[in-house]
Amino acid sequence: MSYFIFTSERDKQNLINRMEITAKLVGEYAVSPLVFGDAEGGTEIITRLKSMPEIEEAYILDDDKDIFASYVNDSSSHEYHPFNPNNSRVEDLSIWDDAYFHILQKITYKGDDYGSIYLVVSLRPFKERLINDLRVLFINMLLIIGISWVLSVIIQQYISKPIKKLVKTTNEIVQEGNYDIRVKNQGTDEIGQLYASYNKMLERIKLEKEQQQKYSKALEVSERNYRTIFENSIVGIFNIDIKSGKLLQANERFYEILKLDPSRLEQYTIDQFLSKKERVIFLKTIEREGQIENFEINHKGDIWISFSGKRIKGQNSIDGVIQDITDRKKNYLELKKVNFELDNFVYHASHDLRSPLRSILGLTNLLKHDKPSENGIELIQRIENSILRLDNLVTDLLTFSKNSRTKRDIEEIDFKALMEESLEGVPYEYKGDIEVSVEINDKNIFKGDKTRISVIINNLLVNAHKYQSSKRDKKHIHIKIKTNKKDMQFIISDNGEGISEENQERIFDMFYRASESSDGSGLGLYIVKNVVDTLGGRIYLTSTVDKGTTFEVIIPNNQSI
């Protein structure tokens, strides 16, 4: 009988120890969900207790003893609600009643309390084991009385000693928390198999413990890194509730940029730093695209701020950052002003230069009519060529200036008529004996800036004529124009001099000449690229020396305008 009492007390203590360990493990796993308010994660953790059918109810309580997550076994018939404020048993560490064992443990991490774990354990399996043990004990007592003199040594050797060894090992593990302890296997019989199973169980517990420690350490490192980044970031970091617009969290840099008081966090909403119109744009962009990037606002008249944020998946809040771009914005505005003034100067200076250039050209023509000497005619021709080059440069500068000064004028374009004008406008001295073929497929209506598209076509067309190879007997230029609802494709190919690979990288640079024989300003292709960019298009170049060059230009169709 004393053995039965001992066994029942031991089983009871083992149950207590096991439930305390279980509660402690669940509590350690529950720290992260409690810290981050992840009720779904808490439920997922506590639901794992379904593998222990004796646990009929389990609850994770927050620091206010409110239910944070719960699990109730399908077979539970327990009617006691653990959160009845009139029931003082909730405050007990552990308690037994007729049918259940209750255990309540605080959830702590680094000395801080985050809540409690409460388990309701059915004693039915425990009592069934006691009854079975009592029956076995009664039978064993009868057997022992009858044949004790035969089996006493065997029982001592093969039953009592191994069990005591297991109990001792279990107690050592519980007391020391050392899951490296093992029992030595002394055979292949049932006891040996029990030892082997026991050791396997310890190995599994050890692995789970190591995994738990690994996760805990990773969580600790992750949390520490996050706090370090959050607190020391050079940009403002914030978290905002989408529905209420309430500021939920922000770092010190956020308050510094917006000149807000951190102690008034609960009073701040998105309205403190966004106007009504800006808020509508900000939230609609988040709702439509899930994120927003570089949303610039002018805060209190003297501070420029850039907002970027992303909606947190599965949550009704936005994580984002802000940057003080006041200096960058001021520099941009100053640069814009300087560029405008420079462009204005170029425009007026170029415009004013044309009149004296035309006058000088007129004078050279008069000199030609005065029948100068042969040497004089050569000098006059040189002067005239230099003036024409300068006039072309001035023309290019005016074209470049107009591109940045004038607004886009969208209209429907007739490419057949446009190409006729461009071909007629090619200077006579460049035309020569060149075969030009044009293929136009403009069944789809195309709307765009006719003036700027003319600049692109004219420059590329003149270049295709100008840089033909003198080595070829048959010179040709092929032009293809195709429109669709999305864009216009302009392709011009020639079999001229071609452009080397090293020159192709810089061909669109200002004042860059790819050909030594070029007498141009070096602005033509730069202007083409600038105009293409202004129209939101793309330009591609394919060229081989002595074989020819192909330019492909794609310009968006503005049908909706």
TrEMBL record:
Q: Which UniProt keywords apply?
A: ATP-binding, Kinase, Membrane, Nucleotide-binding, Phosphoprotein, Transferase, Transmembrane, Transmembrane helix, Two-component regulatory system
Any keyword S-adenosyl-L-methionine?
no
SMART domains in the cross-refs? HAMP, HATPase_c, HisKA, PAS
GO CC: one term? membrane
The record's section on PROSITE patterns has: HAMP, HIS_KIN
Subcellular location(s) per record:
Membrane
HAMP domain span: 157-210
Lineage, top-rank taxon, reads: Bacteria
Single GO BP term = osmosensory signaling via phosphorelay pathway
Topological category with respect to the lipid bilayer = Multi-pass membrane protein
Annotated TM spans: 134-155
Q: What is its EC number?
A: 2.7.13.3
| Full protein name | histidine kinase
Q: Which organism is it from?
A: Marivirga atlantica
